[in-house]
Amino acid sequence: MSIARRRIVRWLTMGFGACFALLPQGWQRVFAQGKAEKIGTIAELEKAGFLSGKLADKTPVLVFRDPKDKTKLVAFDATCSHAGCASDFKDGTIICPCHGSRFGLDGSVSRGPARQPLKSLTVKVEGEAVLVSV
Ligand code: FES
35-133 domain in CATH 2.102.10.10? Predict the structure, then answer.
């Protein structure tokens, strides 16, 4: 490859990288779809009863054992469907601290004002790592 061509390729690569860094979160999420990110380990999940964390695009995540089948895991985007606050796991339920909505461990609304369930995310285990993707 000629030097001029290398420079062009380098500038294009840097340009695309800079453009991606400047994209709003929603667009970063679109490009990051399917990329699994480590939220914790199985040992941490067993100890605490759940995992919480954030994806690279700052999406808050909660992971539990599936209440219907304890051999499986379920993961949710913990962003409350009412007004977007990050929900948390407390006293066996998912609670939004902003206006008190509650969600079941299947993501369904058990108490408003939220009307829509939490969004399910894809979760898998690789070795000890619990990986979540949008
Ligand atoms: S933002 Fe969660 S209840 Fe309002």
Answer: yes
